[in-house]
């Protein structure tokens, strides 16, 4: 159950991955100064906040989407609403509470008038944008993942089951939201699209040819064809904070993961994180005690409670494999065989494991982002993959970790 991994900090630390699958202004958004395209490793679907994307198409949205716009702004600022879907829910309320705390507002968790006024600073950021799915993003092996750990152990990677799922994680949303934003496979718009108007310039998305799943050569079941495809224009939540600095000392595989998740390398350095079980929230503070980020979490259960106390970070494993030991899970028969599961975004701990001084416990991602804050964990702190990746860019071995009820 204990294995070696390559860690941030460059230390060969043994990781135990068995036990779990007040300021007036809010933090400023990512810089808007124009950057050259060569300075950014993010893909061509990135936000245009730094003025370096020229090929995005301006197609007016069909509606204003005020809740989604607030979610997009909160996500950019580091107060994560979880999945961006245009709906009020637990994660969005948690994000609003944290934003309100950072701005010394009444912590109602609602889009009340004072909060709307504070968010006016970012009113020009639209809720959505239209992107073209690049060929290099759409390629890949998409296949249905088996339920049996022994069958998963035979695979080389626990990747996405479809391009649709991969796109949803890239834009911090759900497949259902992408389908809602793209009725009949075309971006929702308030105007007649060129595809429906034969006299218009042909710039709208063509009717998509579904992306087929790769043939599974190791016995895995092929997943259904995706609804979206390379070259297709689609409307997506307008997430930002996705600048990936080419000059940063970042491992190439981890950089690819950040790109895949729409997470940038420009993140605040935090000196303390506090995971609160009663609030389902992990809050991150800088050296001055300023709240700079917050994420909705899943933390423990009645069988495997969150280990209350103060802990240290011993290392960070990017894209980790998972040592599955049935003896450490109360809900798994002990006669099952231990398995070494391959890495991947759909692995039990997602794309990153932040190892703690409490044996068998860590902070990590998840293959099921929609369950964060709703399901239970085996004692660890679980976030969406994109939030876990962002947090991993903020912390270090000197970051204080506090778990509280």
C-alpha termini separation: 28 Å
Helix content range of the residues, please? 10-25%
| Helix-strand sequence | EEEHHHEHHHHEHEEEEEEEEEEHE
Mean pLDDT figure = 84
- Looking at this structure, what is the CATH superfamily of the domain at 2-23 and 268-404? L,D-transpeptidase catalytic domain-like
Morphology call:
globular
CATH architecture assignment of the domain at 2-23 and 268-404: Beta Barrel
Number of helical segments with 4 or more residues:
9
Please mark out the parts with pLDDT under 50 across 5 or more consecutive residues, or reply none.
1-16, 21-37, 193-207
The CATH class of the domain at 2-23 and 268-404 turns out to be: Mainly Beta
> How many strand segments?
16
Could you explain the architecture of this structure?
The protein has 405 residues and is an alpha+beta fold. The protein has a domain at 2-23 and 268-404: L,D-transpeptidase catalytic domain-like (Beta Barrel). Helix content is 18%, strand content 17%. It has nine helices and 16 strands. The strands form four sheets. Strands 2, 6, 7, 8, 9, 10, 13, 14, 15 and 16 form a ten-stranded mixed β-sheet that branches. Strands 1-3 form a two-stranded antiparallel sheet. It has a two-stranded antiparallel sheet with strand order 4-5.
């Amino acid at each position: 159950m204990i294995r070696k991994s390559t860690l941030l900090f460059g230390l060969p630390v043994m990781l135990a991955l068995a036990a779990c699958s007040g300021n007036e202004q809010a933090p400023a958004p990512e810089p808007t100064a124009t950057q050259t395209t060569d300075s950014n490793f993010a893909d061509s679907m990135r936000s245009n906040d730094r003025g370096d994307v020229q090929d995005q198409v301006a197609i007016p949205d069909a509606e204003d989407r005020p809740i989604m716009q607030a979610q997009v702004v909160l996500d950019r600022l580091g107060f994560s609403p979880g999945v961006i879907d245009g709906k009020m829910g637990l994660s969005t309320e948690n994000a609003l509470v944290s934003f309100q705390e950072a701005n010394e507002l009444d912590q109602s968790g609602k889009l009340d008038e004072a909060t709307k006024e504070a968010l006016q600073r970012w009113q020009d950021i639209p809720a959505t944008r239209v992107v073209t799915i690049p060929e290099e993003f759409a390629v890949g092996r998409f296949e249905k993942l088996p339920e049996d750990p022994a069958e998963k152990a035979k695979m080389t990677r626990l990747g996405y089951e479809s391009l649709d799922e991969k796109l949803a994680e890239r834009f911090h949303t759900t497949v259902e939201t992408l389908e809602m934003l793209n009725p009949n496979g075309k971006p929702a718009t308030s105007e007649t699209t060129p595809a429906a108007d034969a006299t218009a310039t042909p710039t709208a998305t063509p009717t998509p040819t579904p992306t087929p799943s790769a043939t599974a050569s190791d016995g895995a079941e092929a997943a259904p064809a995706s609804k979206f495809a390379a070259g297709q224009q689609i409307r997506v939540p307008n997430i930002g904070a996705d600048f990936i600095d080419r000059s940063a000392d970042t491992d190439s595989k981890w950089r690819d993961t950040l790109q895949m998740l729409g997470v940038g390398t420009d993140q605040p350095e935090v000196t303390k994180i506090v995971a609160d079980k009663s609030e389902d929230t992990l809050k991150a503070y800088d050296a001055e005690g300023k709240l700079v980020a917050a994420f909705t979490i899943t933390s423990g259960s009645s069988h495997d409670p969150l280990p209350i106390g103060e802990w240290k970070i011993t290392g960070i494993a990017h894209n980790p494999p998972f040592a599955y030991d049935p003896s450490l899970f109360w809900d798994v028969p002990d006669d099952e065989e231990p398995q070494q599961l391959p890495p991947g975004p759909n692995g039990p701990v997602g794309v990153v494991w932040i190892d703690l001084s409490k044996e068998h416990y860590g902070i990590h991602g998840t293959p099921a982002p929609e369950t964060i804050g709703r399901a239970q964990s085996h004692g660890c702190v679980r976030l969406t993959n994109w939030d876990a990746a962002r947090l991993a860019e903020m912390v270090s071995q000197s970051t204080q970790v506090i778990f509280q009820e």
